[in-house]
Design brief:
With about 100 residues, the chain is mainly alpha-helical. Helix content is about 85%, strand content about 0%. It contains 5 helices and no strands. Helix 1 packs across helix 3 and helix 2 packs antiparallel against helix 3. The chain is flat, with a radius of gyration of 18 Å.
Length: about 100
């Protein structure tokens, strides 16, 4: 069963979906940055959220598909550090915005 899971998780379709999710995220983010009014900005943000979730879902599938089941907990704990450490990055970003300006 683990061999079938690894084979499917490493398929070119999974890698293509991850790449498409990353590209769609970037394009939607550029669309949001270029928005001048609220309605297009909200539409762009909806696409940002959907593409982000698609990318992270495929990233998780590919990561866990290549991980030995004995190490699932350890791999996920390292993988999810980005969520736990995000507030530290927000502090730095806030400090820089205060010093350099929001623009």
């Amino acid at each position: 069963m683990a061999a079938a899971r690894s084979r499917n998780a490493g398929s070119s379709r999974a890698w293509t979906l991850q790449l498409l999710g990353g590209v769609a995220f970037g394009l939607a983010l550029v669309g949001f940055a270029l928005s001048r009014t609220l309605p297009p900005a909200l539409v762009s943000l909806a696409f940002v959220g959907a593409a982000s979730q698609g990318f992270f879902t495929m990233n998780n599938v590919l990561l866990m598909g290549r991980t030995d089941p004995r190490y699932y907990g350890r791999v996920m704990s390292i993988y999810l550090l980005n969520r736990g450490l995000a507030p530290a990055g927000a502090i730095v970003a806030g400090w820089l915005a205060e010093r350099l300006g929001g623009q």
